[in-house]
Amino acid sequence: MRSRRLEVKVIGLGGIGSALVPFLARLLDAREPPPRLTLIDGDEFQAHNRVRQAFPAYGNKAIILTGEIARTFDRLSVRAVPAYVREENVASLVVEGDYAMLAVDNHPTRRIVSDHCSSLRDVVVISGGNELTDGNVQVFIRRAGEERCASLTRYHPEIARAGDLLPAEGCDLRTSAEPQLLVTNLAVASAMLNAFHACLEGDIAYEEVYLDILAGKMNPVVRGGTRWLRSAP
Amino acid sequence: MVTLGTMSSVTVVHGIHRLTLPLVGRAVGGVRHSLAPVLNIGADTMAVVNGGMVGEDYVLAPDDLLEFVRLAGEKGKVRDGGRG
């Protein structure tokens, strides 16, 4: 019996997302049937991004990276959505059965995706974020209409109460004021892939993991109890 | 002799930190006050015991898991109070 085709959406292709995608694509390329990968970002790759991000050309990140991935992994079905996620389009971008890899740099987008996914019956959201030298990855799972791992907002009021300052409305100003480190982005991307692999294997053992590159530590956290976890997907 | 556990301990989590301490009978607010300078616990972080949100007056019981939920990473800023 053929298994259902895996649908993976990567939202945000900045420092974390652009580090995540090549390895995610390689992981997906080995699966049968070949999954579909959708890369979503309305942002443009510009000269100042080169410190942390590897794109072969300037222009929309989703379009450029989709071309690269499609050339490298010809079994995968890859498509670009050159748009930011908003209240108005989230329902068409993340749908039932999806794995959403959320690699954005703002809480309003996390809130929009989390709230929308709370209305779906079956979805997995893996969300990573970082500050300068530390970060975290949250795992949000719904199966058969039941929440198996908490939404992104349940234990994070800073996300639940995030305002409406979305990318293209203030992101560029904050970028220059708050520099990021490539190594922290990479650590979070790696932790997101760990969580993705564990979810695919039905063996996720935590709801959130914290990491710190200077301390060299990761700490997985379970809040709702292990009844939610293991064999979750 | 190896001691695998003690009935009088509480596990405290904040970010990358995880400690097992003899805090049974202590209120969450007092624990926050005591550990804040050690673990860089912010005053605005939510307190969660065994998965449920609790107030500062909650009294800890044996084997409780107390977490002061560290704020989610957002965009590269240097955290107040440093590592946690």
Task: Give a structural overview.
The complex is a heterodimer of chains A (233) and B (84). Chain A has 233 residues and is an alpha/beta fold. Chain A has a single domain (7-228), classed as NAD(P)-binding Rossmann-like Domain (Rossmann fold, 3-Layer(aba) Sandwich). Chain A contains seven helices and eleven strands. In chain A, a hairpin with a 4-residue loop joins strand 10 (208-212) and strand 11 (217-221). The radius of gyration of chain A is 17 Å and the shape is globular. Chain B is α+β, with helices and mostly antiparallel strands and 84 residues long. Chain B has one domain (10-69): Ubiquitin-like (UB roll), CATH 3.10.20.30. In chain B, 14% of the residues lie in helices and 25% in strands. Chain B is built from one helix and five strands, in the order ββαβββ. A five-stranded mixed beta sheet of chain B has the order 2-1-5-3-4, covered by helices on one side. The longest helix of chain B is centred in the middle third of the chain and has 12 residues, at 28-39. Chain B is elongated and about 40 Å long.
